[in-house]
Amino acid sequence: MINKIQSLNLRTKLMIVILITSITPLLLLGFFTFQYISSVLQEEISENELEKLSSINNQFTYFLKDIEQMTLFFYKNDLIEETLKRDPARSLEEKYEDYDKVNEVFETIMGVKDWEVDIYVIGLNGDRYFSNEYLPNQYNRIRENWGILRKANEGQGTIVWDTNYSVNQLDTKEIVLSAGRLLVDSETNEKLGYILVDIHESALSSIYEENNYYNRQQFFLLDEQGYVISGQPDKRNVGTRLEADYFDRVMSRDSGFFKFEWEETPSILTYHTASETGLKLISMIPLNIIEQKNNLIRSLTWNLALLGIIFSAWLAYFLSKTITQPLYKIMFLMKEVEKGNLDVRFDSKFHDDIGILGKRFNRMLRQLKVSIQESYEKQVRMKDSELKALRAQINPHFLYNTLETVNWLARLKGVEDISKIVVSLSDIMKYSVRKGEDFVTIEQDVKQLQNYLTIQEYRYKDKFDVQVHVDEEIKDERIPALLLQPIVENAIVHGLENKMEKGNISISITEHEANIKVVVKDDGVGMNEETLEIVNRKMEEGLAMEELGIGIENVRKRLFLSYGDNYSWNLTSKVDEGTCIEIIIPYKEG
Predict the structure, then answer these.
(1) How far is CA 503 from CA 279, 465, 520, 539, in A?
(2) Whole-angstrom Cα distance, residue 458 to residue 422?
(3) Calpha distance 148→164 (Å, rounded)
(4) Mind listing the pLDDT tens digit for each residue in 301-330?
(5) Distance separating alpha carbons of residues 389 and 434, to the nearest angstrom
């Protein structure tokens, strides 16, 4: 897999890298942003739901306080008190009059409040008054140890509340909560009867029904014992004790919210307890309802991420094309160069890295073209030189034959000195014009020097003596040809020729720190400091030196061509003491 990726072209690699480095952060950012916003939205909805439950619970509290005030009105009403103190055996006409009067009180109360409640005034004297069309059987016959009546007796005139419990969850409970208060004679404090109020479930559900703005949201209103007083929209649990895993957690705290499984559906449960009434209101919201809002966030997040991906893809294509197109152009030009076309050029409008590469490519082509031209011209000159050399070989061969004739004539005449000079001169010429040998052994170059000295002995007679020392172990090492003879010739001509008395030349070739050290020293007339400084400066700058002649200049040039900067040259001289040239060169391989 890695090898396949590495084998892709540069444009594809750049697109892959740019896409990966841009899309990956976009996807991660989109994912974590959505998760964070979803969590914040969920918590915010739960907080808002808790505030809503608190508001609804306050409405329940106000409603129950109104019920309490209504019962207190009956408790302190003189008409009700006088009516309940009447003789049970009074005439029907009197009872009817009392009914009209109490009914007017009912109409006054019910006309002010639009409540779904039933009001009952139950007298111990047998009077029964009610606001609806019939009297429930449990209120017709007074059982003071039963339900709301027992609590009213225990309350001694204070309001009491009683939840209407259901044995069967399938029972339809219209009356879910009852309020009661014991009615007594204001003077004697003797019991006269009861004021009872039955509250319909619809009276309670209508309070929070308007706030149910979520589909499939469930409300429960519980009393202090955990019995369901009201439910919306599902009312099957009304009148029963709520049994669930979360029941203890809800009943042990005043308010809060948490996630749970409601009817196998992930949901959020929010609950709030009214501080005055103790009623606990619960709402259950399936998470998928909240996620409907998350869908908008999800769509927005992923749409933005998709736009980012599209932009990244376009940017990757644009950048890869911008970067690689000039490279492909250079590659095309290189193919043209391979075909032999050196006149191509790379045109760049920018001064970036590719532009610099293109300029250097153009410079390389110009230099290459010049080098090829120079190489061609050099080859032409070499051909011409070889032709000239072939033509020049005619003269040396003629000279060799002539010298050989002189040598035999000298020997026939018995003139050995002439014969030796002619033989030495012939060997020198053969050594000088040999072809293809730039390097010779030290032994060969010393032999060439001996031929030269043989001729000079006849010219200068006893003018000087020459001592030559060569370390035996380095005599087969290779040095540039004609290295010694020009230096010795310079010592004779410039050092010893003008000396009045006999002179000496010493030549030493030794091993020196893994190098070859050549020292040529004479005791001739020497040079003064000014002349020596001029000579050394000219040698450093490569200038012609009339003071020493063309031989020394030639030696210096050949040493530089042979060894570059890996050799050393030291020329010292004093007036009337002589001159010394010291050369150190490395061993030549091969």
Answers:
(1) 139, 6, 14, 26
(2) 12
(3) 10
(4) 777 777 777 877 777 777 766 766 777 777
(5) 11
Give the model's pLDDT for residue 535. 82
DSSP string of 426-446? HHHHHHHS-SS-SEEEHHHHH
Closest CA to 518 of 459, 565, 475: 475
Q: Mind listing the domains of the chain with CATH numbers?
A: 47-289 (3.30.450.20), 342-393 (no CATH), 436-586 (3.30.565.10)
Ranges of H-type helices in 229-347: 247-251, 287-338
Q: Tokens 């969850």 identify what position? A: 169
b/e burial code for range 363-390 (CB count within 10 A of at least 16 → b): eebeeeeeeeeeeeeeeeeeeeeeeeee
Residue 448, helix vs strand vs coil: helix
In this predicted structure, the answer to whether residue 501 has a pLDDT above a threshold of 60 is yes
C-alpha span between 424 and 299 (Å, rounded)? 107
- With cut-offs at 50, 70 and 90, classify the pLDDT of residue 438: confident
Q: Which of 427-431, 512-516, 535-539 has the lowest mean pLDDT?
A: 427-431
- Residue carrying structure tokens 């404090």: 189
Tokens representing residue 331 in the block:
């590659």
Q: Which two tokens stand for residue 65?
A: 């306080």
pTM (global) more than 0.90 = no
Q: Residues, the chain, total?
A: 590
CA distance 37 to 290: 12
Residues in CB range of 454: below 8 A, 6 or more apart: 420, 421, 424
pLDDT for res 180: 92
Helices 92-112 and 10-75: crossing angle, nearest 10°? Answer: 150
Helix (H) or strand (E) holding 286: strand 280-286
Give yes or no for residue 493 having a pLDDT over 60. yes
